[in-house]
Specification:
The chain contains 19 helices and no strands. α5 packs across α17, α7 runs antiparallel to α16 and α14 packs across α15. The longest helix is centred in the C-terminal third of the chain and has 35 residues. The chain is globular and about 80 Å long.
């Protein structure tokens, strides 16, 4: 789940008007302690990925589905060290684009990072909407085909658009409630899975069984599965936006982030172990609601297993809403800073929400869901989730490089130091999971990511031409 980024794009936020006038700009109130920050990080990571992609991960490596989650955790942790250095060095609510801008000072690169993060929100929300539709069909036993699930997913995105247009107040306390709901669903799967394992109703030997596709060796299969599993680990980077509101971030933030990552990694490993022990890998791979399959197989007469589809719906619905809010606000912010066409910054006079940006991000999400769902047997959530991880891993690679570049920038306060090796390891690991010949990704993920980035470049180009013409017209009038 993601927190809405309400700050201005960082290439304009680096130097504020108040700083130019040697005045101290007002700071956000530091009210978040370690407990609330921990709940935010855990809740930010938990969501659509583990609820929807456990079966797809198992389909790549067989019963050893826990291994890709561990590898994804390791890559996320190494990258988290880079984020911890940057967030304690620059404790401002801006994130990756600010760090890239400080490191390289290239406006176009900063724009691309911001736009890619925005696109990751749209692809993530699209994946969540498909997972929502699949869980709804399962929960009510509707028995609809691919077209029916597609229509529900599109209807859900339109509902998210309506809520987004109306305006939603986001808070850390609300995140606590949502985190507890998501945890309830995952802990239910773990407890029911353990009940089946200790009751002799599961095959624990499957947990150490590697089964890879015929066209892939073990290394490539693990890389492909890790590329999918990483979708379940994204979200921790959003916590950097809380740094400016955290008490003593230099001391609290590093320890809390590592604790949050470790908690979610343990939960994911336990969920994947229970899943493959209870349900055959082939069944998991074909299911769009793998954790529901696990709960109903482990305890078919247990009422909680019937509630899991609705808990899953709630978890992924919240992920979709937060991601679409983030995407529309980033698009609005980039338009306000004149790096995208100005019509995208239009605000509704009554609702006070960026309605044009909301419409465009919704249209992109609808197009993505429809395009990926054209083939009846297409793994929609896997493709969209994989595209999300592809986009964010690219950003993480640049962030890891930015840490090294910014070592020359001295700041007065003490801050966390990631050391000389970890950022290099993080950059290489992220690049490994991005490149097509090492990650084993579905080519469709690169096609979707390329189209989205191309759309951003076109919009940026239109703005560039418009600004030049406006400047020339002003000069002619003078």
């Amino acid at each position: 789940m993601r927190r809405v980024r309400t700050v201005a794009p960082p290439w304009e936020a680096v130097v504020s008007a108040a700083e130019v006038q040697n005045e101290s700009p007002p700071e956000l109130k530091r009210v978040i302690g370690p407990k609330l920050l921990l709940l935010f990080i855990v809740g930010d990571i938990l969501g659509t990925g583990v609820y929807a992609l456990t079966g797809q991960v198992a389909g790549e490596v067989g019963g050893a589905a826990w291994l890709p989650f561990l590898v994804a955790f390791a890559v996320a942790t190494v990258t988290a060290f880079s984020y911890m250095e940057l967030v304690t060095k620059y404790p401002q609510a801006a994130g990756a684009a600010l760090y890239v801008h400080k490191a390289f000072g290239v406006h176009f690169l900063t724009f691309l990072v911001c736009f890619v993060v925005m696109c990751s929100g749209i692809t993530s929300a699209s994946a969540a909407s498909r997972a929502f539709a699949a869980n709804l069909v399962e929960g009510f036993g509707l028995g609809l085909g691919n077209v029916g699930v597609l229509l529900i997913a599109m209807g859900f995105i339109l509902l998210v658009m309506a809520v987004n247009f109306r305006g939603v107040s986001e808070s850390v306390k609300l995140n606590v409630v949502l985190t507890l709901v998501e945890l309830t669903g995952l802990l239910t799967v773990i407890l029911l899975g353990l009940y089946a394992i200790f009751g002799g109703e599961a095959d624990f030997s499957r947990v150490v069984l590697f089964e890879t596709p015929e066209d892939k060796n073990v290394l490539l299969a693990v890389s492909t599965a890790t590329s999918l599993a990483f979708f379940a680990m994204v979200g921790f980077e959003d916590s950097v936006n809380m740094a400016e509101e955290t008490k003593d971030p230099t001391r609290i933030f590093p320890r809390t982030m590592l604790t949050g990552l470790s908690i979610t990694a343990v939960i994911y490993v336990l969920v994947s172990i229970c899943a493959v022990a209870v349900v055959p890998v082939g069944v998991l791979r074909e299911s769009e609601t793998p954790l529901v399959e696990v709960a109903q197989t482990a305890a078919p007469g247990f009422p909680m297993s019937d509630l899991l589809p609705f808990i899953s719906m709630f978890a992924v619905a919240n992920s979709a809403l937060i991601n679409m809010m983030m995407a529309s606000r980033l698009l609005y912010g980039m338009s306000r800073q004149r790096v995208l066409p100005p019509f995208l910054s239009a605000v509704h006079p009554f609702r006070r929400t960026p309605w044009v940006s909301i419409l465009l991000t919704t249209a992109i999400a609808l197009a993505l869901i429809s395009y990926v769902s054209l083939a009846p047997d297409s793994p929609v959530v896997a493709i969209l989730g994989g595209t999300t991880s592809l986009l964010l891993l690219t950003v993480f690679c640049v962030v890891n490089v930015s840490v090294l570049v910014l070592r020359r920038d001295r700041v007065p306060q003490r801050h966390f130091h990631a050391g000389p090796v970890l950022p290099v390891v993080g950059a290489v690991a992220c690049a490994y999971l991005v490149l097509p010949w090492t990650s084993g990704r579905d080519p469709e993920q690169y096609r979707i990511a390329g189209i989205l980035v191309a759309l951003g470049v076109v919009l940026w180009g239109i703005t560039y031409v418009w600004k030049r013409r406006s400047t020339q017209q002003v000069d002619v009038r003078r």
